[in-house]
TrEMBL record:
The lineage of its organism: Bacteria, Pseudomonadati, Pseudomonadota, Alphaproteobacteria, Sphingomonadales. InterPro entries: Anthranilate_Pribosyl_Tfrase, Glycosyl_Trfase_fam3, Glycosyl_Trfase_fam3_N_dom, Glycosyl_Trfase_fam3_N_dom_sf, Nuc_phospho_transferase. Keywords: Amino-acid biosynthesis, Aromatic amino acid biosynthesis, Glycosyltransferase, Magnesium, Metal-binding, Transferase, Tryptophan biosynthesis. It catalyses: N-(5-phospho-beta-D-ribosyl)anthranilate + diphosphate = 5-phospho-alpha-D-ribose 1-diphosphate + anthranilate. Its cofactor is Mg(2+). Pathway: Amino-acid biosynthesis; L-tryptophan biosynthesis; L-tryptophan from chorismate: step 2/5. Residues 13-63 form the Glycosyl transferase family 3 N-terminal domain. This is Anthranilate phosphoribosyltransferase. Catalyzes the transfer of the phosphoribosyl group of 5-phosphorylribose-1-pyrophosphate (PRPP) to anthranilate to yield N-(5'-phosphoribosyl)-anthranilate (PRA). The gene is trpD. PANTHER family: ANTHRANILATE PHOSPHORIBOSYLTRANSFERASE (PTHR43285).
């Protein structure tokens, strides 16, 4: 008896319709595990197209638990998996940018390939993740920040965990975090650990109806703007942005990535709190660079220099530290 495959052969690029049907079958569990593994591996080997990335994101968005967000809310999120094990830059940027008056719906998770993800570090700082999850809409509306724990908002992806672990390599689902914001934001600063894939990723964002975004990748395969040298940048809906950005474009010095290497959750939380309390150095400069880009995405800064100055002023007068304290106490 011949078995009819439920998923298409990924040897050639898929059409929008075929890709949509395939990812619906994967997320709904109607395709066998072995077939899912073969399909995802085939896509990864061939290289996913923007159409396929957008189709996977749509399927995930259709099945996520969404929240309401205020107009102008943004997300600052990376794909992760860059292997550099830096301090939590995007988490710090989210707090700083929110303190500058931009609502930030921070989408994140626990560590997968590093020692401390956004959730781990925020929890160590004193944020009750269960309460933050329950109160996400309220805190986003009232104080301008929320943490959206990916595992809570994307139940459809949970069943894929053992399949992805068995595959043992990156698949299209490693690209999904920034594309499936539960707050349905249309403005994003996205870090991707694959500089050669930034344009493809930006095309997927355009397909998904994103209003404004910067897709950034450090040339050393870092999933954020690098403090060590140039980064690849692809802008969507934002004019006059260079396709390469270096720290000096924001008036900041360069630092080796080793200067912002992170550790476990306690180590990273201590560093983040010290940053918010005014400590200067490489971590602050990395955060200022990425905060500047986020403020451009939000439309509140026109240049990197302006954005960095705005973020620095907030840090210097203690607004991000005060916001974190309000967030921890929020109920």
């Amino acid at each position: 008896m011949t078995t009819i495959a439920l998923l298409p052969d990924p040897i050639s690029p898929l059409s929008r319709e075929t890709a949509g049907e395939a990812f619906a079958a994967i997320l709904d569990g109607t395709a066998p595990d072995a077939e899912i593994a073969e399909f995802l591996t085939g896509l990864a080997i061939r290289g996913e197209t923007s159409i396929e990335i957008a189709a996977a994101a749509r399927a995930l968005r259709d099945r996520m638990i969404a929240i309401e967000a205020p107009k102008g809310a943004i997300d600052v999120c990376g794909t992760g998996g860059d292997g550099h094990h830096t301090l939590n830059v995007s988490t710090a940027v989210s707090i700083v940018v929110a303190a500058c008056g931009v609502p930030v719906a921070k989408h994140g998770n626990r560590a997968a390939s590093s020692q401390a993800g956004a959730a781990d570090t925020l929890e160590m700082l004193g944020l009750d993740l269960d309460r933050a999850e329950r109160d996400a809409e309220g805190s986003l509306a009232d104080i301008g920040i929320a943490f959206l724990f990916a595992a809570s908002h994307h139940p459809a992806i949970k069943r894929l965990t053992p399949i992805r672990r068995a595959i043992g390599r990156r698949t299209i689902f490693n690209l999904m975090g920034p594309l499936a914001s539960p707050a349905r934001v249309t403005r994003q600063l996205i870090g991707i650990a694959r500089p050669d894939y930034a344009a493809t990723y930006a095309a997927a964002l355009a397909d998904l109806g994103t209003e404004a975004a910067l897709v950034v990748a450090g040339e050393e395969a870092l999933d954020e703007l690098s403090c060590a040298g140039p980064s690849v940048v692809v802008a969507l809906g934002i004019p006059n942005v260079a396709d390469r950005i270096a720290p000096e474009d924001a008036g900041l010095p360069r630092h080796p990535l080793s200067a912002i290497r992170g550790g476990d959750a306690a180590h990273n939380a201590h560093a983040l709190r010290a940053l918010l309390d005014g400590e200067r150095g490489p971590y602050r400069d990395a955060v200022l660079l990425n905060a500047a880009a986020a403020l451009i995405v939000a439309g509140t800064a026109d240049t990197l220099s302006e954005g960095a100055e705005t973020a620095a002023a907030a840090l210097d007068d203690g607004r991000p530290a005060a916001l974190l304290d309000r967030w921890i106490a929020y109920r």
